[in-house]
Design brief:
Layout (H helix, E strand, L loop, with lengths): L2 H5 L4 H18 L15 H16 L3 E4 L5 E5 L8 E7 L12 H14 L20 E7 L12 H7 L17 H8 L16 E9 L4 H5 L3 E7 L1 E10 L3 E2 L11 H17 L4 E4 L3 E4 L5 E2 L2 E10 L2 H21 L3 E10 L2 E2 L2 H15 L3 H4 L13 E4 L5 H4 L5 E6 L15 H24 L1
Parallel strand pairs: 3-4, 3-5, 5-16, 6-15
Antiparallel strand pairs: 1-2, 2-4, 6-14, 6-16, 7-12, 7-13, 8-11, 9-12, 10-12
Helix pairs in contact: 2-4, 2-13, 4-13, 8-9, 10-13
Bound molecules: zinc ion.
Length: 452
């Protein structure tokens, strides 16, 4: 199918598809471990239920379904050549605790609609319904990843890491807050931990990975634009920091004798804000903060806090960490405190593949600039309608999948930019535009592929 032919589709099909997506987001939101809120974590009974429902919707859209060895739900629309590689489209169905209903979920449901819109059924004279197949040289596969958020075991991207073949067997011993190990949870879910490597895909099996996701910030809303191409996913480092001072009597210890660990840590948290807020695309967050022994009448002798540091570029991020470290030396030296840290996470930035950025851009242009897909007239006009490109400070499944194939992403406007919160939102109209842009992007990639 060509982009032009897709453009000839009645625009109401995209709205109908978006209505189905929104209704299904509502339906999935009711599958939760916490009534009145949305919480759906890895390998839970809720995970099993949403996989079954997603599989049903995939089959109804003509896809061949299976759940892989890591609990990811997959749906395949094969190419005419069964050996042909596939373009993977998807996102995740797990949530954080007390989540919104769109983060991840909307991307999976949009992928199902896109495959439904693009598929071809060959004429069959026998009167039997011919199986649906991909109209491109490559198959289309919808992936609903089982764990992106890491809400249960503290380790994110478990589902997509298994697909990428970067699974670490040490993860089996990770425990959830109830002391259940990942291994025990997998067995209870019906998975065989010894077979997790079967979920891994070879690079040669894939053409690439495309994901639609709500923006988890306010940038598109502020610009008054519905869609953006994602250029890269943030690099991130996470640290647990400990400040050591001396616990002493709150009444009997004069200020000049105090070595108050909490005050040193507080100054450090403020320094993180001061340093990061003056840097372009560097975000530092202190999200956990504790004082010990934690009594009202004792000067805190120890403080512990976390630091989440993200950046568009690894080098810039590392330079800022060096600057923060020097500042901490200074603060703690002045206050006669000691500090040390343990790095608990380090992921490089993931740059979206130029070709996939191009096709997502073409998809957006075809969607927002009527006629541009058909006659290419915009090509000679300096592209005044160049789609917005954003870097994603939030993590996504593409960070893991990037280990085996090219990654591209499409962002949709999120009013107020609220995410990981029940107020998370996206409009029906923007989802309709997003479905069309994603379908156009796939069609553009199909045309590119044929050419090469
Ligand atoms: Zn997400």
């Amino acid at each position: 199918m060509t982009a032009a032919r897709l453009g000839a589709l009645d625009p109401t099909v995209f709205e109908l598809a978006a209505r189905r997506v929104m209704a299904r987001c509502d339906e999935l939101a009711r599958i939760t471990s916490t009534p009145g809120a949305i919480t759906r974590v890895h390998l839970s009974p809720e995970h099993a239920r949403v996989n079954r429902l997603a599989a049903e919707w995939m089959r109804e859209a003509g896809l061949q379904t299976r759940q892989d060895a890591a609990g990811n739900q997959l749906g395949l629309l094969p190419a005419a050549d069964p050996e042909a590689p596939v373009l993977m489209l998807g996102s995740h169905l797990d949530t954080v605790v007390d989540a919104g209903r769109y983060d991840g979920i909307v991307g999976v449901l949009m992928a199902i609609e896109v495959v439904r819109l693009l598929q071809r059924r060959d004429d069959d004279t026998s009167g039997v319904d011919a199986p649906a197949r991909s109209p491109f040289d490559f198959g289309l596969e919808v992936a609903a990843f089982s764990d992106e958020e890491g809400a249960r075991f503290g380790k994110a991207l478990l589902g997509s890491s298994a697909v990428a073949g970067t699974w670490d067997d040490a993860w089996w011993e990770l425990e959830d807050p109830d002391g259940t190990t990942l291994r025990e949870a997998a067995l209870e879910f019906g998975l065989d931990p010894g077979r997790v490597s079967e979920a891994a895909r070879r690079p040669s099996e894939l053409v690439g990975y495309l994901e639609a996701h709500i923006e988890q910030g306010p940038e598109l809303h502020a610009r008054g634009e519905p869609l953006a191409v994602v250029s890269s996913i943030a690099s991130a480092r996470r640290f647990q920091l400990v400040v050591e001072g001396e616990a002493r009597h709150a009444g009997g210890t004069p200020y000049d004798m105090r070595r108050d660990a909490l005050l040193g840590a507080s100054e450090a948290a403020l320094a993180v804000e001061r340093i990061c807020s003056t840097q372009h695309h560097i975000i530092g967050t202190v999200g956990q903060f504790e004082a010990f022994p934690g009594a009202m009448n004792i000067v805190p002798g120890e403080a512990r806090f976390s630091l989440d540091l993200r950046g568009e570029f690894d080098g810039e991020r590392d330079r800022v960490w060096d600057q923060i470290s020097r500042e901490l030396d200074d603060i703690m030296g002045r206050r006669r405190l000691r500090w040390h840290t343990r790095e608990v996470h380090n992921a490089p930035a993931l740059f979206c593949a130029p070709l996939l950025q191009d096709v997502v851009g073409e998809g957006i242009r075809s969607t927002l600039v009527p006629g541009s897909a058909v006659d290419g007239s915009i090509l000679g006009s300096g592209r005044p309608e160049d789609p917005t490109t954003l870097f994603s400070p939030a993590g996504h499944d593409g960070m893991a999948i990037g280990a085996i194939t090219d990654v591209g992403m499409l962002f949709m406007r999120n009013p107020d930019g609220v995410s990981h919160h029940p107020d998370e939102a996206v409009s029906l109209g923007d989802v309709a535009l997003g479905i069309r842009a994603l379908a156009e992007a796939v069609a553009h990639l199909g045309a590119e592929h044929r050419r090469t």
